[in-house]
Amino acid sequence: MKKRVLMVVAYDGTNYHGWQLQSNGVTIEGELNKHLTSLLGEDIRVAGASRTDAGVHALGNLAVFDTESRIPADKISYALNQRLPEDIRIQRSMEVEPDFHPRKRAMKKTYEYRITCAPFPIPTKRLYSYYTYRRPDLNAMKKAAGYFVGKHDFKSFCSAGNQTDTTVREIYALEVSQEGADIVIRIQGGGFLYNMVRIIAGTLLDVGTGRKKAEEIPCIIHSLRRENAGPTAPAHGLTLIGYNLDDIL
């Protein structure tokens, strides 16, 4: 009898061309499909909740697939982790309702963007944070962050490849904090546009370094013009922390 399995997937995105299947590169989705097919003896195709870009990391992305295997759903994570490359690990697997799909459920999603501020780059952070020798104004960034919270049209904060019907999104929380040499931008929302988190991070960094003022953020949002926002921050500083599973199970 067929069952649907939900997996919580963590990965270091450094060596991958993002989540989504591509004909010319190794992806997270492709690795999951390949090793699940081998493990279960079926043609498995997973469906992910977030199609993270090349170089972006995750601690808790979600993926579902259907299988007729007799292996209990909660044991698939153990078996699959024996086959996956060491930079991809299943944190949890469980059976869900046959119609469950992570992209069709309202849920809270949390991302973190890390910026390392130091006189010289720190080698152990190079793959997981964006480096700058300039120390941004943390208070200015915190002030700017408050303007993003709430429901807005975020057209100014999405890249041209966005394919959604609407650019209206709601941000539940946006915090900027200091952790040692790192500035951490933590954002939670119901969903995000293409490159939205990285553009917000780039805009906050512009505020922190004086290129923009915090008070300009409402005007940038209302302008609906991408060129008014800051640059798209590099992918390697971004990590998908995860989803609130209590919202969807």
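Above is the first protein from milestone M3; the second protein from the same milestone is given next.
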Amino acid sequence: MKDKKTFGACLAGGFLRLLGRLPLGWHRWWGRVLGDFVRGTLHYRNDVVMVNLARSFPEKKYAELKSISKRFYRHFATTLTEMIWFGACRGEKGRRRLHESHIVEITNPEELNRLYAGAPQLMMLQAHTGNWELIGGIRNYSYGTELSIMPEDFAVTYMELSSPTWNQVMAENRTAPVADQGFDGYVETHEVLRFALGKKGRKFGYSFITDQSPYTDMKHPVVEFMHQPTQMMTGATALASKLGMAVVYLRYECREEGGYRMTFVPISDNARGEDPVKLMERYYALLQEDLEKQPWNYLWTHKRWKK
């Protein structure tokens, strides 16, 4: 993130920031149009989406699965266009714009504050639900009780892309609201352990998206998730168990009128010595509950279940 920016990153980043200044309503409209185009014209991973949906919801008929697929593509494309809008929310003016938009609303900020106060550190487990690209603005989504976690005491993990240019563009975009607030917690997944050990003994919070397929071919624990045997990554919960972190699941729902609701569901007030697999099983049970309520609200283009 601190590497010298490439010319391509400067060019792409500047264009996206310019585009991001357009109203949020425009980005949402364009997202719906783009979603229909990606699904109906480009046929981007249509087969992957339908197979994932059919296996995850075996009780649903084909027509219903097609309807879910259509809504998913609109949701997926809107997360991308909203992300562009988010990238223009920089500095104090940008944070005010983000807050006033109500793009995300936290329903129970006091619960996160309780968990954060009661344990040495906090582990927030996310999934590819809601708009996962907006987590960097989390302190702007509370409309009552302010979150006690400060930008300099929070880390967001990511998976490195193959393109250095897009790595830089995405890093700037994802951290736009906190770039001027002492934030230095944009951490690549392979560097998390070293980073966390460096923060040991300090009050700190972490956000992990941990529903992906494991990154290695090693044998991993398996959970029954969405009616399918699913390999789990346990790195985040193993770290929480080792360092005695509170563990919380981030429920990230879509609102019918547009935008999202965040709700913090506690998994453990202090996970020291707890089984990382058991913690992840609870995470997947909560995620399945959410997908059964909002089946379009997930990254179904992801090849999650590899045969």
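Note on the second protein: The radius of gyration is 19 Å.
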